[in-house]
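SEQUENCE-TO-STRUCTURE ENTRY
===========================
Question of interest: how does this chain fold, as expressed in backbone structure tokens?
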Amino acid sequence: MATTSSSNLPSSGGPKLLRFGVFEVDVTAGELRKSGKRIRLQEQPFQVLVTLLENAGRVVTRDDLRQKIWPADTFVDFDHSLNTAVNKIRDTLGDSASSPRFVETLARRGYRFIAPVEGVIEPRLVAPIAASSAAPIASSDAMTQGTETTIPAATAGPFLGESATDETDETELHPELHVPIPRRGLVRILFALIQVMFLGFYLSALSQLHDVEQVVNGFLTDWKAPLLVGAVLVTGAVGIPLRCYLISAVAFDFRKLGANFRRLFPFVLALDQLWAVAPFLLLPQIGVGLAFAATAALLYIPFSERTLVRLAYRDSE
């Protein structure tokens, strides 16, 4: 015998086009768009997002979401699936659990969509209007009955032909860094390339340690030369497993990389600053000027690593 869902959510007979900020959700087409461009979101995260949008400002409990999206006869780890879906939504919207702009988590209760949401029921039948305290719009049902439906202009304005506000035109910014949010895939690739670069430094220096020693002896004397060669040997041996860990973490999209990298950053900073002088080991081949230029660029690398990690791995649940 089939069971009847007891979800407290209202039916989805409302607007079919939901807009918030630079995003819009076409419920009928099953599409999420940003500034008019379609962006990919998997089916379950999309359904969760639509449910939150249709109940914007209200708490949607985890049980409500389970009854609406996960059928009773579906055998999955519901908690894990829901957490994954919410994380996907946040990644796609550029949101953060610690400082949410869209999806707010209420511990042990559920979620709430906190940004203003505006809905359009029949966008093709709506004509431009002038801004006023209230705008009369004749709906399809109202036209047949000779009555009018009133929509507040503050809500309907940008979607009824008025000039869009600055909020809908501006690019989404990272909540902490205040820069446009790039694609996570690109950020992760850049971070991985930096790790590969340093890994190449270590392997090259250790495989040609004798040549490094000759170069060092050319401009350092007494005990300083063996000390520098020893530093290259020790830091290279330590740096190899560190870079391998960072490469594997970003390759497999390890979600705790952000927190782990923050703890590792003082060590990474010291290591990278030391290896920033590596171009001087190639002094006979590249000359003093290019060695100084390369060192200046390498001195900034650890700070760019930290920024890339913050862009790709914002705090999640």
